[in-house]
Every structure is written in structure tokens, then in C-alpha cells.
Amino acid sequence: MGIWDRIVGGAKAQFLDVIQWLDDSNDTIAWRFPVHDQAITDKSKVIVREGQAGVFIAEGRMSDVFAPGTYTLDTPNTPILSFFQSIAYGLETPYKGDILFVSTRVFTNQGWGTQAPFMMRDAEFGPVRVRAFGSFSFRVTDPGAFIKNIVGTDGHFTTEEITGQLKKRLVQAISTAIGTSGVPLLDMIGNYEALGDKVKAKVQEEMTGSYGITLTDLTVGNIGLPPEVEAALDQRTKMGVLGNLNAYTQLKAAEAIGDAAKNQGMGGAGVGMGVGVGMGQMMSGMFQGVGQAAPAAPSAGPPPPPPQAARWHYSGPNGQVEAGAGEIVAAVRANPAGKHHVWQAGWAGWKDVADVPELASLLGPPPPPPQ
Predict the structure, then answer these.
(1) Rounded to two decimals, what is the model's pTM?
(2) Residue 100 exposed, middle or buried by CB count within 10 Å (0-12, 13-18, 19+)
(3) Which of 30, 153, 211, 288 could be a cystine partner for 157, CB 3.0 to 4.6 Å?
(4) The domain 107-230: what is its CATH number?
């Protein structure tokens, strides 16, 4: 190429007065200033704004990293001169260097999570599979290391290109921290903050040294359990809410008696009276000893009344009531083809009338079939 061709080629270049990066995106970390067919003169200015750093590369080597400010080519600063002298427009070549801008602001709300459950040993549940989820924030604190080790020659570097690697490292550290924490699963939710701080401290040195990145925040949002473990926890919670199972059984029985009293079925007024007596006995038993002092020593007096006849919770064709043996026998004889069941406190479930010796003896042998 002759000298005239070089002059014509250089004349086509656009001389730059201001070199700057006005970032309007939310995910760009590094951006290379486009200098193709553009010439930088000794009158040009480079503006590095707040939240940015300027990385100058001369003939393939990083010259220096500049903080926010305005830099002019003729500034008597050795790093600036050594760089801009190499890229100042000349007849031989209009450009020998690169200018990269790096965003140093905090990139927030970057989600992380385990792609598959990992195993851990819990003192109460034994070996279980768990999953963990959360978020983290980061910023570039060493732009030179970030350009050298991560960006390379990429002219437009976004968060998507680095968060994948960061997430893998975080998930590995989180899994190890949870598995070795020794904290029971039921108490894990109260240790989310301490767990996040522990993982952050563990990976911070590697992040800064290898990537030039600092984690500004790391949170553990949730540690998920397998469905069978969650079902077991639900059952345990239910039992804790119920508390005293005997008191709960008595309460449900009282509710059933109240519903039966509204039923105008078997026994008529006699059944209603029996229900009232039975409810009185049950409520008396439920509240016996509540708010009372210790029983006094027995004193001389008339003998106690004889024990009352046994009563059952009866379920038949006409509903449920509390009734004595005579009432139940009468109901069975009135409708021998129906289903008649009884229950008493302490039984595992309802029993057929014929399976209760006290009632079966009163019913006698079953009647012969019709001829």
C-alpha cells in the first residue's frame, strides 16, 4: 500500500472526541468501545462514569484500570500516555488498542437452586433428600482480573454468561454446608441466615481471586423436603394441635350427643332424657378435678348411691344417641334387619350389638327365619 492509499484510508476514519459508555441495560457487565473505522486523537477524552471502571488494553496487553473520572490524551500520566500513544492515529495504523468499560454496580436478585435433591443424614428422620433455593447479589471489584480471567475478547459480556458458573459453585458449597451443619431439619429454618453467611465466607476468596467478583449478599430462601417427610411432619403437627387425645375424644362424643338430641328418632322423650343424663355424666367427667383442691379425707355419712347402669353410644337406623341396655335391645327388636352398633370410651372402634356380651345376652338367640 502506498502512502497516498494510507492517507485516503485514514481520512475515512471518524475522529473521536469523547469516548464513554452510557449503559441502559440491566445485565451488561463489560462492554468494548467500538473503534472500528474510528480514530482516537491526542485531543480525545475518555469519561468513566460512577459505577464503571475503564480497562485500557494496548497491543493485546492491559495497560491500566481507571476509576471514575475524565481522562485526556495529553495528560502527563505515564500509563495513559503509554496506552494512547500506541493507539493515536498515524499513517501506518489508526488503532492498536482496546477500551473496555466494566460495570461495578451491584447485580441483585440472582436466583440459585439445586437442580436435583441431594442426600443428607438427619438425626431424627435418618437419610433424606432435600433441595435448597435462594438468591445472591454480586459486583465486580477487580476489573483487571475479571477481564483477564472471565471476559477475554468478548465485546459484550452479560450476567447470564457468569451467573451459571457462580450458581454451580454456590450450590456445591450450600450442599456441603447443609450436609455437615448438624442442624436438625426441623430447626433448619431458624438457621437460614447463619447458613448463608457461612457459605458466603467459604466461597468469597475463590470468587475474588478467580473471577474478580465479590458476593454482596447470599440468602437461603427455602430448604424443601420430600413429600413423605412433609406428610410425616403434618401428622406430627396435627397430633400436637390435638394434644390430649382422651379430651379430644370426649369433645367429639359430646358433639355427637348434641346432634343426636336434635334427632326425633328412637325412644322419643325417654331417649332425650337419657341423652341429657348421659351428657351430664360425660361433662361431669370431663371437668372433674378442674380448679378443685385435693379431695378431703372421707367423713362419716350415708353410703354413696349405687353405681348406675352401663350406657353406650348407640348408632342405628335412626341416628346416634347415648342409651342404656334396655333402650338398645328395644331398638334392635323393633328393626332386626337394620345395622346396630355401639361404642364406649376406650374402644378402638364401633362394635356390632351382637358382639357385646352384655347386650347379646339380653337379645337372646336370633329369631328363626320366616317359613
Answers:
(1) 0.54
(2) buried
(3) 30
(4) 3.30.479.30
